[in-house]
């Protein structure tokens, strides 16, 4: 027996004797011991008391260890009932996306003209990136292919001078997913400013409602806006307006070189309350008008998850509000943040009617890309109401299909109507549109000919199509026309002989179409996307193309193992159930 065990044994004996002593005392009162015996008894009791103290200390230590290990486990002899496990309800997806169908194939003899507004938004790409990084395939309606394509920069030559705000570029080569058709790429490259930008009057309109209380919302807004503040100078003005249950001015127009004051105002924001977005928009425009700079940049930057739930919440009323305010010469751009309740439909369309652009910021690197790297194209407009119209030659082209731009389609008569709003191009911005075309007799046609249609149209045999563009100066009301023919001689016979930019844009377009279900991509696979993107990656100074390759790999790994996918409205549908 070890010393510790012996002490515990003696201690237990003492405890038993102590418990029995009162009963013995009641029966026979003890006689006083002789002095020597009393001294010996006192010494023995002191030893036993010390042993008992050690026993109690050991029990306390053991009890503490057991309590740490089983803090939440009910004891066998406890009187209280065993607590039931807390049932956590599943996360309810409340993200909102505008439903749309893919643009279909058109026969040139029936519909020779294609008209649409340009789009410089990129938010759909970074939003889908967030879905894939979180291990989930995105809803189909979150994928707008043109925003995928236009997320990337291409080596288009800029115009020679500012008198023409953008240069046009055309390239044609075989389609990667269909050997019997061709891709027609139309590229616009905006004028790149030299030196400093014009002075900017910026109003940061920040949602500080309770829905913004998470790390990927208000804290990320604050970090991203502070990156932009560092780029401002004394010529610029920055205001800060917030809204929750009520809206308010946190910072009136302040010179951009007073960075400590501006950053302190941003750092002081806290989330809480409901969301009265319309009142905030009204106040932000009033503050922008107060700091208005003639011949400068005047813009409201709305940073929110789009979850407006107080005051004016009707979608069309909010759009009408912003549309009325744009006549003041103040643009509105939207910066989307967050997950779960994100209203992407509102963010994208408010930017469209506000003569601004829409970006989704999923991390600080994207905040830097939008607000620092692409600051000129984000803030400075060089052309507004830009429209594209392509008239295909039925003698050469049998069918065409515009890839993306579904929510940018315009009626043919809208092209020359200067009252019809269209998209804006920022300084240095590039815009790309892709058509898949089937040449006459190529065998790539998808539509059966009409019985009584004109199958022998006349036309210039060397022209594929005629390209027209209309645009207005940033402060103008009358559009100007640019036009040029697209000729057979511009066709590159082999895809491998086309430019790296062409092939990479084709890979991105194919990826977006696969995410939307691959209705027109035939047997093309994720592996094919990867192969094309990798060999067309090029220099990739910023690493964005390499990141794209990683996203394709994520989508490829998620797709085969997925037991469900999200349909048009974000509802969950079993694979093979017909949900499209």
UniProtKB/TrEMBL annotation:
CDD domains: vWA_subgroup. InterPro entries: Ca_channel_alpha-2/delta, Uncharacterised_YfbK_N, VWF_A, vWFA_dom_sf, YfbK_C. Residues 24-46 are annotated as: Disordered. Residues 201-386 form the VWFA domain. This is VWA domain-containing protein. It comes from Sinimarinibacterium thermocellulolyticum. The lineage of its organism: Bacteria, Pseudomonadati, Pseudomonadota, Gammaproteobacteria, Nevskiales.
């Amino acid at each position: 027996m070890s010393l510790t065990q012996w002490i515990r044994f003696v201690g237990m004996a003492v405890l038993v004797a102590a418990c029995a002593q009162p009963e013995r005392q009641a029966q026979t009162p003890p006689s006083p011991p002789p002095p020597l015996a009393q001294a010996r008894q006192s010494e023995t009791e002191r030893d036993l008391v010390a042993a008992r103290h050690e026993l109690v200390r050991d029990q306390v230590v053991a009890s503490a260890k057991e309590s740490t290990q089983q803090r939440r486990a009910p004891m066998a002899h406890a009187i209280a009932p065993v607590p039931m496990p807390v049932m956590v309800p599943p996360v309810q997806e409340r993200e909102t996306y505008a439903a749309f169908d893919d643009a279909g194939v058109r026969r040139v003899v029936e519909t020779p003209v294609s008209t649409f507004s340009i789009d410089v938004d990129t938010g759909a790409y970074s939003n889908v990136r967030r879905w894939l990084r979180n291990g989930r395939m995105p809803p189909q309606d979150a994928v707008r292919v043109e925003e995928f394509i236009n997320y990337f920069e291409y080596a288009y030559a800029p115009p020679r001078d500012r008198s023409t705000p953008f240069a046009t570029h055309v390239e044609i080569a075989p389609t990667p997913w269909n050997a019997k058709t061709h891709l027609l790429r139309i590229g616009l490259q905006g004028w790149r400013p030299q030196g400093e930008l014009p002075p900017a009057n910026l109003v940061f309109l920040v949602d500080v409602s309770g829905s913004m209380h998470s790390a990927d919302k208000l804290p990320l807004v604050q970090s991203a806006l502070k990156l932009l503040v560092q780029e401002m100078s004394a010529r610029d003005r920055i205001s800060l307006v917030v809204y929750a249950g009520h809206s308010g001015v946190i910072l009136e127009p302040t010179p951009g070189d007073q960075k400590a004051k501006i950053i302190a105002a941003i750092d002081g924001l806290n989330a809480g309350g409901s969301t009265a977005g319309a009142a905030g928009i009204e106040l932000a425009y009033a503050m922008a008008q107060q700091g208005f700079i003639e011949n400068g940049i005047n813009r409201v930057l709305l940073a929110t998850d789009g979850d407006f739930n107080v005051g004016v919440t009707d979608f069309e009323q909010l759009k009408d509000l912003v549309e009325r305010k744009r006549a003041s010469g103040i643009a509105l751009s939207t910066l989307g943040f967050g997950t779960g309740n994100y209203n992407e439909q509102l963010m994208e369309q408010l930017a469209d009617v506000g003569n601004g652009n829409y970006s989704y910021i999923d991390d600080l690197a994207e905040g830097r890309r939008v607000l620092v790297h692409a600051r000129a194209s984000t803030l400075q407009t060089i052309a507004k109401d830009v429209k594209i119209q392509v008239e295909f030659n039925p003698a050469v082209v049998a069918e065409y299909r515009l890839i993306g731009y579904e929510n940018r389609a315009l009626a043919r008569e809208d092209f020359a109507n200067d009252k019809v709003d269209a998209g804006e191009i920022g300084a240095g911005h590039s815009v790309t549109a892709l058509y898949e075309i089937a040449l006459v007799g190529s065998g790539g046609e998808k539509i059966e000919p009409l019985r009584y249609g004109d199958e022998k149209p006349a036309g210039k045999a060397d022209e594929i199509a005629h390209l027209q563009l209309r645009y207005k100066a940033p402060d103008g009301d009358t559009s100007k026309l640019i036009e040029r023919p697209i000729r057979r001689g511009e066709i590159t016979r082999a895809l491998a002989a086309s430019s790296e930019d062409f092939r990479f844009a084709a890979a991105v377009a194919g990826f977006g179409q696969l995410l939307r279900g691959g209705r027109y991509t035939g047997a093309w696979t994720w592996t094919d996307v990867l192969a094309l993107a990798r060999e067309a990656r090029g220099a990739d100074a910023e690493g964005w193309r390499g990141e794209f390759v990683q996203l394709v790999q994520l989508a490829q790994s998620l797709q085969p193992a997925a037991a469900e996918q999200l349909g048009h409205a974000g509802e969950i549908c079993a694979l093979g159930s017909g949900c499209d």
